[in-house]
Amino acid sequence: MVATQHAQGDLLDYLVRPLGADLSARRCHIRHADTALHAAALGLNEAVTRRLIELGADVNAVDRYSASPLHYAARNPTSTPAVVRSLLGHGSKTETEDNWQARPLHLAAEWGNIEALKLLLVYGADVAVRRSSDFLPLHDAAERGLSEAVVLLGEGGSDVNARTVTGWRPLDIAENNGFDQIAEYLKAKGAVTRFVV
């Protein structure tokens, strides 16, 4: 794990090959109980991420909260596209839910990770999936005022009139939070407000 956190590729090779270090080992002293690949994805180190995958790390391993390395990379807006691309290119599942029913697309939309959002859409992430808050990724992006994410999701086929269980649509959320540019885009895409009489 230390080799991963400090981007020590040579040390990583030594620990895995001659010593047989377990790539699925978890950091028990850390509350998330994540793997070395989670740490590499969060640490934004594409070379170490790629090397761990080459050495056999499970790209779909989950931490204590059911989050995969792809969840970690997607929620970090400074994540390099290469880390996300490596994970996706080696079979990381786009539809894995964490304990809050958030998928990587929700996290990329919520945290404004535009490059991850683009890649997830290219790899077929479902824009119509809801999380425990009943939000689509489009609701998440509208709530945060992330206009580029809203546009990507809107152009990616997200339902601009999708309602939460309480009746809120992305347009309602944008207007309620004063995100006029997002509201105008959503209206241009055919969105209507729940407050129309």
UniProtKB/TrEMBL annotation:
Gene Ontology CC entries for this record: nucleus
Domain of life per record: Eukaryota
InterPro entries linked: Ank_Repeat/CDKN_Inhibitor (IPR050776), Ankyrin_rpt (IPR002110), Ankyrin_rpt-contain_sf (IPR036770)
SUPFAM superfamilies named among the record's database cross-references: Ankyrin repeat
Alphabetical keyword list: ANK repeat, Repeat
ANK-type repeats, residues: 32-64, 65-99, 104-132, 133-165
Keyword Repeat on entry: yes
PANTHER family assigned: ANK_REP_REGION DOMAIN-CONTAINING PROTEIN, ANKYRIN-1-LIKE-RELATED
Listed name of the protein: Ankyrin repeat protein
Originating species: Aspergillus fumigatiaffinis
